[in-house]
Amino acid sequence: MKFVLLAAAALATLAAALLLGPANVPLGELTTSPIIWQLRLPRALLAFLVGGALGVSGVGLQALVRNPLADPFLLGLSGGAGLGAVVAIALHLPGPWALPLAAFVGAVGAMALVYRLGLIGGAELDPRILLLGGVAVGAFAAAIMTALVSLAEATELRNAFLWLWGGFSGASWTTVLVILVYAPLPLVVLAAAARPLDLLALGEEPAQYLGADVRRLKQLVYLSASLLTAAAVAVAGVIGFVGLIVPHICRLVWGRLHHTLFPTAFLTGGIFLAAADTVARTVVAPRELPVGIVTALLGVPLFAFLLRRWTVS
Amino acid sequence: MDRELIVAVSDLTCRYAGAPRDALRAVSLEVRASEFHALLGPNGSGKTTLLRAALGLVRPLQGRAEILGRPAGDWSRRDLARVVGVVPQREENLFPQRVHETVLLGRYPHLSLFGGVRAADRAAVERALVACDAADLADRWLWTLSGGEYQRVRLARALAQEPKLLVLDEPTVSLDLRHEMELFELVRTLVDGFGLAALMITHHVNLAARFADQILILAEGRAVARGAPAAVLTRETVERVFSWPVAIEPFDGRPQMIPLRRHPS
Predict the structure, then answer these.
(1) pTM of the full predicted structure?
(2) How far apart are CA A126 and CA A219, in angstroms?
(3) Under CATH, which number does the domain B1-83+163-265 receive?
(4) Looking at chain B, which residue has its C-alpha nearest residue A195?
């Protein structure tokens, strides 16, 4: 039932994203207009897929570190991605792929560093050290990034900052294809980890007594969630709040079991980000707001409302 | 016919990385079906380490720990969870959940990767709840339970694993007299009625003496005494291990310990 509802909402959101926009497309030309086919449709799909990836990644990471404040970007990925992007901008690396590729490399580098830090205590990934390491690596990368930005020309600076707030203005069928090729593997790995993650909520030792291979579980979930986030960053920049708030919304509405949580977080994250992007490109048309600003402005009140409803009942 | 040998620990020595001394030193233990074993000893004597090593979570320095004839470290967690159900001392409850959901977690080692919960799993949950006298709690939220009810539910979860061995780590801590007695009686009933083996860490010398078939006393990582309660719980042993003067009196054919005052009035 919930999946039918969510699927209907997803279709409605995508339809709205196709119909709304600064350029007026007559209804009769919907199926032929290049504005729809080359701009709005790939952009809406990309926003949906990135939102879904961030929602799922947030669910996985919050379960992994057993901390409700965990966000895909809290583990140092945004810092690494931002640094990679700013380096690409500062070095004037050519080609349309330079920036996303550099961001991806930065994110994966930060992920590897945090992962290595998490192993300091031995072969077991320690969630507390992962969190601390993520914050530290993120701050370090942000410092270098800010140093680079402060030395940059004014237009470059503006580009870098806009990119850091995330957006889909660069969406194309190629970027949609990239994430379509890239996301399924980590998504399947996370889906397979759904039941062990339910057990992990009890603590690591109780989870092992109930049959979870906790050590491998932590490694797989951390790598899958981080790679999903890195892919999202590469095609859309750093979009905050989706990975933090969507998992909470889904948990409040549909419960804490991961076999429901993962699909609902994918659909809810997709709907949320596709809707936010539609708002971002229409409210101040012909200019655009960075979509990260819209997700924060929409997400925080929505979250506060749900939190209140939940604590009252 | 010999009862099935479930846990075989022999000459087990363990040390945690960086620790100055062995946490366990040459400890042996055998647990068979339909036996209730109690593990006694002061804080820090190695009781929980023995349990972890027997279940393959701590790698032994020397000696062997086997479950059903196979080294504990060779079992996958999932396979082991179908044979041994554990009620750990502590666990977290990050998210609100209902009793039947909690007990269903005990079925996870029996579920396939992407498969759903089958009728057989629901039946096992129901049986476990009934066996633990917790069937009427099924729809309650976990946080609304009393301490005694909560422990019965956790025992039901371990039972839903359909294990051959139940392991309980200080299950009656902070329970009042009635709930304490009910829990010991419940474990005894499961051992007698279902042929389960039970291994319980406890600080209740007297209840261990009343309910258990076998007692192992640990002190500073060494096995001080092992055997039937009447053989193990002598005044000398108990005084030495717990560093306190006691008297031992028989009751119902079992030894009972009475702690003495150091400064009688």
Answers:
(1) 0.89
(2) 10
(3) 3.40.50.300
(4) B108
